[in-house]
Design a protein that fits this description.
The protein has 492 residues and is of the alpha+beta class. The chain has two domains: 178 residues, 3-Layer(aba) Sandwich (Creatine Amidinohydrolase, Chain A, domain 1), CATH 3.40.350.10; 274 residues, Creatinase/methionine aminopeptidase superfamily (Creatine Amidinohydrolase, Alpha-Beta Complex). The chain is 36% helix and 15% strand. Strands 6-5-4-1-7 form a five-stranded mixed beta sheet, with helices on both faces. Strands 9-10-12 form a three-stranded antiparallel beta sheet, covered by helices on one side. A three-stranded antiparallel beta sheet has the order 13-16-17. The longest helix is centred in the middle third of the chain and has 23 residues. The N and C termini lie far apart (63 Å).
Length: 492
């Protein structure tokens, strides 16, 4: 449930009886026209069926979670737990403190969404509740409207406890523990004495992750749209690079430009954008984004738009700030591109997920050896007793992608890292080479160069589809693309 905010009596003005009588009067009636069904809620029906089928006769509790306090009496923007969104179709900032319950029946399971519907205008919540009141956060749905939007049976969240306790002694209950600590505590209280409770809940979490490994057609289309929106954001960043250089603190400018387009085209960014200029590109999770952008440096931009359905892209391009790669920059860039090409070629049905990394790393090691950086052969570095190449590429080449940027994270190793790629899976392919400015093993002219190239790859029946292919990848194509966006004319 929602984190409790502090009480601030010094800011609260009591409501007079005259106000209480006046405030509910002379409002237009609520519309009796039902909202349209959310497209994301339609494939959720089959997902709920498959989940329930895996746990016959058991009550399954999947909370949305609640708002978290950012500071004092201000909350972070709410985002529902990904599993809740996946099973209901509710994205964006819906639906704080809601709980989805799959109740076992003779015919399978009955799904009910317990949430906080809007109250009459005579209720103090309407004008006095800063988290749920209509005058504070806007008009909430009625039970009938939420049912129309989701296709789910709906009930007030105030009835959840009774539903939880119903036949508790004879009904096994599982809860998605990580979604809402308060709901988990209530479930644990009801099933006191169940020694296997945590193991049961872990199995539910693993199942919910594993089920998301293969995307359905709706999800694949959402991923395509997220990549298209992300490409718009990248183009906007390039157009504004001269402004970012001129104003100083250009990394923040880049972050802001992309964030503007992410918020306009979707729900926002799918993760904190990495806008890393120069040597900052060699810090893998550089999200401080407070540095300048300088003519002659590279900008590593790792960013993705999250749609209102919460599906997100995850794309990286490394761009010359002035539109032209130097000789040393191009040398590193071409090596990374060759590694990515090898990884993409390995991303096909029937291959292991780990084959992508192995193919990319083989190319990375080859170039590191040619540059005189590896103290051993490429084969030795790639062996179990080696790993020296990780000084210059410490991360993995791929992860699953979807409604979470690192999707399906609770799936078992045998289904994820050691799993076999299947049509419908979406993975990133993102090798990099990072040559820190302080690394004395690196030739001086290459120090401070960091390059990563990342695309979102949908596994198909006969190979793969690069969902982010609308953004150029080769050095020549990047330069030509940037020249067009910057209004330059290429010579020759």
């Amino acid at each position: 449930m929602s984190e409790e905010q502090p009480k601030l009596p010094n800011r609260q003005t009591p409501f007079s009886e005259a106000f209480r009588e006046f405030i509910p009067t002379h409002w237009a009636p609520y519309s009796d026209q039902m909202p349209e069904r959310l497209p994301a809620s339609i494939p959720a029906v089959e997902r709920r069926r498959l989940l329930a089928e895996a746990f016959p006769g058991e009550r399954l509790v999947v909370p949305a979670g609640g708002p978290k306090v950012r500071s004092n009496d201000c909350d972070y923007v709410f985002r529902p737990h990904s599993a809740f969104a996946w099973l209901t179709g509710l994205g964006a900032d819906r639906e704080p403190d809601a709980v989805l319950v799959l109740e076992p029946t003779d015919a399978g399971h009955q799904a009910t969404l317990y949430f906080k519907p809007r109250v009459p205008r005579t209720d103090p919540e309407f004008y006095a509740d800063a988290r749920y009141g209509e005058m504070w956060v806007g008009q909430r749905e009625s039970l009938a409207e939420m049912r129309a939007m989701t296709g789910l049976d709906c009930a007030p969240v105030s009835e959840f406890q009774a539903a939880l306790e119903k036949n508790a002694g004879s009904t096994q209950i599982r809860v998605l523990r990580a979604a809402d600590e308060a709901i988990t505590a209530r479930v644990d209280q009801v099933r006191q004495g169940c020694a296997e409770a945590q193991e049961m809940d872990q199995a539910l979490e693993v199942k919910l992750s594993t089920m998301r490994l293969v995307k359905d057609p709706f999800e694949a289309d959402q991923m395509r749209e997220a990549c298209r929106a992300t490409a718009v954001g990248f183009e906007a960043v390039v157009r504004d690079l001269p402004e970012a250089v001129e104003r100083g603190r250009g990394e923040r400018w880049v972050e802001g430009v992309f964030g503007l387009h992410a918020r306009h085209h979707g729900n926002g960014v799918g993760y904190d954008s990495i806008a890393a200029g120069g040597d900052h590109a060699n810090t893998l999770h550089w999200i401080r984004n407070d540095g300048d952008l300088r003519d002659g440096d590279l900008l590593l931009l790792d960013a993705g738009v999250e749609l209102d359905t919460l599906y997100t892209a995850d794309v990286t391009r490394t761009l010359p700030v002035n539109g032209r790669f130097s000789e040393a920059q191009r040398k590193v860039y071409d090596a990374v591109l060759e590694a990515q090409e090898a990884g993409i070629a390995a991303a096909k049905p029937g291959a292991k997920f780990s084959d992508i990394h192995a193919a990319s790393i083989a190319v990375v090691c080859k170039h590191l050896h040619q540059w005189g950086l590896l103290p051993v052969t490429p084969e030795e570095s790639m062996g179990e007793d080696g790993g020296q190449h990780r000084r210059w590429m410490v991360h993995g080449t791929s992860h699953h992608l979807g409604i979470d940027v690192h999707d399906c994270a609770q799936a078992l190793r045998e289904d994820y890292r050691d799993g076999v790629l299947k049509p419908g899976m979406v993975v990133t392919v993102e090798p990099g080479i990072y040559l820190k400015a302080t690394d004395l093993l690196v030739p001086e002219e290459m120090r401070g160069i960091g390059v990563r190239i990342e695309d979102d790859i949908l596994i198909t029946e006969d190979g793969n589809e690069n969902l982010s292919a609308m953004l150029p990848r080769s050095a020549a194509d990047v330069e030509e693309w940037m020249a067009g966006l910057l209004g330059e004319t290429r010579a020759g």
